[in-house]
Amino acid sequence: MSLAVCVSRALAGVSAPEVAVEVHLANGLPAFTLVGLPDTEVKESKERVRAAIVQSGFDFPARRITVNLAPADLPKESGRFDLPIAIALLAADGQLPVAALDAYELAGELGLGGELRPVRGALAMVAAARGSGRSFILPRLSASEAALVQGVQVLAADNLQAVCAHLAGVVRLPVLEADIPPILASAYPDLAEVKGQGLARLALEVAAAGGHNLLMQGPPGTGKSMLAARLPGILPAMNQDEALESAAVQSLASSGFDARSWCVRPFRHPHHTASAVALVGGGSDPRPGEITLAHHGVLFLDELPEFDRKVLEVLREPLETGEIHISRAARQVCFPARFQLLAAMNPCPCGYLGHPRRACRCTPEQVSRYRGKLSGPLLDRFDLMVEVGALTLEELQVLPAAEDSAAVRARVDAARERQWLRQQKCNAALSVTELTSHCCMPIELQQQVQAMLERLDLSARAYFRVLRVARTLADLADSSDVQRQHLLQAIQFRRGLVGSNNK
Predict the structure, then answer these.
(1) What is the per-residue pLDDT across 167-194, written as a single tens digit (0 to 9) for each?
(2) Hey, what domains does the chain have and what are their CATH numbers?
(3) What residues contact residue 436 under an 8 Å CB cut-off, 6+ apart?
(4) What is the Cα–Cα distance from 226 to 213, expressed in whole angstroms?
(5) CA–CA separation, 41 vs 400, rounded Å?
(6) DSSP 8-state assignment for residue 21
């Protein structure tokens, strides 16, 4: 047999399209030709494959070798094709049974001694292989995360010899079972550690219950970062689909996915010096950015005005659509980005404007310039804005023990359950048509609300965001209809955004 075909996977965003690795051996002077739009890493695989085959005790065919990675118009990157190329080459040379290849997909980078090294995106590749009816052979260090995918048999191998022995029917590779760790309460910091700040705690609870974006403003040291870090701990638990999507995204990152993070909502906290590419993703071989790594989790932007304005403006599209499209000369990919935005800022450059005990040194012009770094369209995408005031040491010492995350999460879960039974989505995701249907109010109340919002000079987008927050407040109160107090409270949460050009 001079032709063998092995199946592997490429990566295109979070998808993993199937790649047929075709190897043909022909008579003639020894040569090794690799085609199919490979990048430099893939082109270098022929040297790794040659050394690994010889060091594993097999014969490297002294013939004209042609390797085709199909489809030819799909870019191929990384060393994940080393293993399927080596296996297809040995099968084409008759050293392995060709028929055995039909039942498997393979991916793995080869060392010169034949050992298998982990590959990026293993979980995403195995998730894409569901429904193919084939098992997936991976390096052991990559197989542990891929085994979390249900419906695909994942086999772990340490080296090329072990894979060949399995395909020859000599020694079977072990089938990895998903080792799903328990979700510990310690995975998230507890809200009980935050004393006082009743209004900010309420805003955090409303944000969790409805999936709303939240902006906190206050002097340094008032607990804004503490509150932000505790938001994931009061969010509803991830379901299996959300956990798989989040894990697949994490597996695409350079650091890979840690199985201990299964079902733990991501909390991404990029520094304010982050570039637009770091935030949204990109590169010649597009990688996910912070907004994608926060998929089904929380993106926390501390010191919001310190971010470059152009960097912040790229958030506007994914906040509306839940995805980010990245176009490069050779590749176009789409990454999911359905995250909850949480941001914090100081009231002025020095941070002490309005502080009861510290004097602000900033001029009105400096304060205006500082707040002007945030555009009106960006601020318009926050549903809630809350002031986090300074507390004295005496107040902190006498304040009673605060409510813990478990108690708050119980109310959030109940509110989310009401939303799911009513509309199968959280309130923040309601369209204008759905909002009109699920946010019923008497005509008189609608007119009063519209009059108040007109006096506050809010945009149409802001009006509907107020209605979504009011619907969430009603759900937390177990009210089937939106009442006047819910609307007034939602408007109060919105008032902090007035004066920042919400047109």
Answers:
(1) 999 999 999 887 666 554 457 899 988 8
(2) 3-167 (3.30.230.10), 185-425 (3.40.50.300)
(3) none
(4) 17
(5) 60
(6) E
